[in-house]
Amino acid sequence: MKLIVEGMTCQNCVRHVREALESIPGATDVSVNLQSGEVEVSGVEVRAAIEAVVEQGYQVRQQ
């Protein structure tokens, strides 16, 4: 699935988002692009992915 994450400004933001998604059981193929804000992740439900990123303090919408 693809998500758009708003509010990422640096590589630490990318790391936080990636680690939050990787911590979800079943998550695979996590990719985070700082420039576009696009995030791709497989193996998880949309709701779980969005909640994990929102908990890190970012706004998320499904693409």
Write the topology of this structure.
Elements: E1 2-6, H1 11-22, E2 28-32, E3 38-42, H2 46-54, E4 59-62
Antiparallel strand pairs: 1-3, 1-4, 2-3
Task: Give a structural overview.
This protein is 33% helix and 30% strand. It has 63 residues and is of the alpha+beta class. It has a single domain (2-62), classed as Alpha-Beta Plaits, CATH 3.30.70.100. A four-stranded antiparallel beta sheet has the order 2-3-1-4, covered by helices on one side. Strand 2 (28-32) and strand 3 form a beta hairpin. The chain is globular and about 25 Å long. The N and C termini lie close together (8 Å).
Descriptors:
Alpha-Beta Plaits; alpha+beta; 4 strands; 63 residues; single chain
Uncertain runs: none
Largest sheet: 4 strands, antiparallel
Secondary structure tally, helices: 2
What is the level 1 CATH name? Alpha Beta
Q: How helix-rich are the residues, as a percent range? A: 25-40%
How many β strands by DSSP?
A: 4
**Overall pLDDT level:** 97
**CATH level 3 topology:** Alpha-Beta Plaits
Which structural category fits the helices and strands?
A: alpha+beta
Give the radius of gyration: 10 Å
What is the distance, rounded to the nearest whole angstrom, between the alpha carbons of the first and last residues? 8 Å
Order of helices and strands: EHEEHE
**Which second-level CATH architecture applies?**
2-Layer Sandwich
Spatial ordering of strands, largest sheet: 2-3-1-4
| Overall 3D form | globular
Beta-strand portion reads 25-35%
Give the count of structural domains: 1
